[in-house]
Structure formats: C-alpha cells, structure tokens
Specification:
Shape: globular
Strand content: 15-25%
Number of helices: 8
Oligomer: single chain
Order of helices and strands: HEEHEEHEEEEEEHEHEHHEEH
Radius of gyration: 17 Å
Strand order of the largest sheet: 3-4-5-6-7-8-9
C-alpha cells in the first residue's frame, strides 16, 4: 500500500470510531457549553471524538500536523501532511436530537486537499475521496447531478455563528436565491451539504465564512465527484475565511452571478 492508502485507511477507521461514539450518545443527556456566541455550541461528545482522532494520529503519524476545531491539534514545521478535523459537524443538531451531523476528516498534502472522509453515523453513510481517484459513498462511486437550470435546482445554505451581530448575515443571499431556485434547504452541517452535492442529492450549496475543517473533506469529495467549489469570486475556497460556493458545475456561474448581485 502507498502512504496515501495508509492515510486513507487511518482516516476511515477514525471516522467510524468517532461516529460510533456519536451514535451511542445520540439523544442522551449532554453537557452543552457555548464558544464564540450563544448559538455556537460544544458538547463533551465533540471533545471525546476529537480526543480519539487526534491521539490516534499523534501515535501513528507523529510527523504530521493537525488542525482540529476544538483546538487540540498541533503545528509541525515542514510537515508534508496536515489533518484537518471537525470531530462533530452539526453540534447544534446533535444537541437538539436533530438527526443531521457527521465526522469530517480531511488530509492535505503539501497544502492541497488529498484525502477526505465524511461519516454520517445515523445513516451509516461513509463518503470519501482521494485526489485523482474519484468520490464514493461506501463502495459506490458517486457523481454530481446533471441539472443545468437553477430554477429546477435544489440548493442548501447555512448561517454563520455571528449572524445576530454581523451585517453579512446571508439573509439577502437567502431571499434572492429562494426566488431563483426550485427549493432551498438549511440543514446545519456543511460537510454533509457538500457530500450531498457530490452525490447529486443537492445541486448546489453556499455559505459565508466557513472554517477549514468545514470544507477540507467535503470540498475534495465534491471535486472528485465532478463538481466545482469556489469562493464567491470564483477563486480558491480551500483557504480559511472564504465564502464557499459548491455545485454540480453546470449551475455554478449562475449561482455566483446571483450571489454577487445580492
């Protein structure tokens, strides 16, 4: 096996193990705290999943860098590989018993997305991609939708944690796109929204000010499924702090036009 295959095998194993914790703790009593805002939640399950993933990487890949949402990662000067981890994407959903959350593990090689694994433990769906090898749900290859018209498209979006205070709250974009698309969803998990674009359940998705761990795995899965991901200006969305626009590719330019006008 190549080093890439070893890394994918480890990412897959850790996603399944973290997902098992989430499945076991789903709809049980939780200790819930807030972080950057009253709507930005963290639970002991987030921290337990992150500890499991990070400790295994530190043991098995001691020379790799780690960026993890809850802060237990590490910088490694000159590291070829960096793991980008959202241990529980959709914490608010999880805390409320809303069944839409996942584990997201992306791995960069020399700064480029190279391996992505997203696991939905309730649906039992494991999405994954390796750069240049296509995208999969389980053993089945997945592909973005063929839809070419925005007025027939199903889209998704989300809202940043600072929406109560920021003027860039996505509401104007939401209202404008709602009138243009067939339907619009807001389900609270960026990683799963990206995977749904990759497998054709959604035709497009956008959101403001996502963090690297939100897109590191799902963005690669979209691109390997034949889709497109950019920032609102059409540039690279694999960098920190950008608006993310993701689609099947066919409706992408139209989405960018509408978002720019809004």
């Amino acid at each position: 096996m190549s080093e890439t295959d070893d890394i994918f095998a480890l990412a897959r194993r850790l996603a399944l193990e973290a997902g098992a914790i989430q499945r076991e703790r789903y709809e049980t009593a939780l200790e819930i705290q807030t972080k950057s805002a009253a709507v930005d939640l963290v639970t002991e399950v987030d921290r337990a999943c992150e500890a499991l993933v990070v400790s295994a990487i530190e043991k098995e890949r001691p020379d790799d860098a780690i960026l993890a949402e809850e802060g237990s990662g590490r910088d490694v000067a000159g590291a070829t590989w960096r793991w980008v981890i959202d241990p529980l994407d959709g914490t608010t959903n999880f805390a409320h018993g809303y069944p839409r959350f996942c584990v997201s593990i992306g791995v960069e090689r020399e700064g480029e997305a190279h391996v992505g694994v997203v696991y939905d433990p309730l649906m039992g769906e494991l999405y994954h991609a390796i750069q240049g090898r296509g995208a999969f749900r389980g053993e089945q290859a997945i592909r973005v939708s063929p839809e070419t018209r925005l007025d027939r498209a199903l889209l998704a979006t989300g809202f940043a944690y600072d929406r109560r205070d920021s003027e860039r709250d996505n509401m104007r974009n939401f209202g404008t796109m709602l009138k243009e698309a067939r339907a619009l969803r807001r389900d609270g998990s960026a990683a799963l929204d990206l995977c749904y674009v990759a497998c054709g359940r959604l035709d497009g998705y956008w959101e403001l000010r996502l963090a690297p761990w939100d897109v590191a795995a799902g963005g690669l899965i979209v691109e390997e499924a034949g889709g497109r991901m950019s920032d609102m200006a059409g540039g690279d969305a694999h960098r920190e702090g950008h608006t993310v626009v993701s689609s099947n590719g066919a409706i992408h330019d139209r989405m960018l036009e509408i978002l720019e006008d809004a």
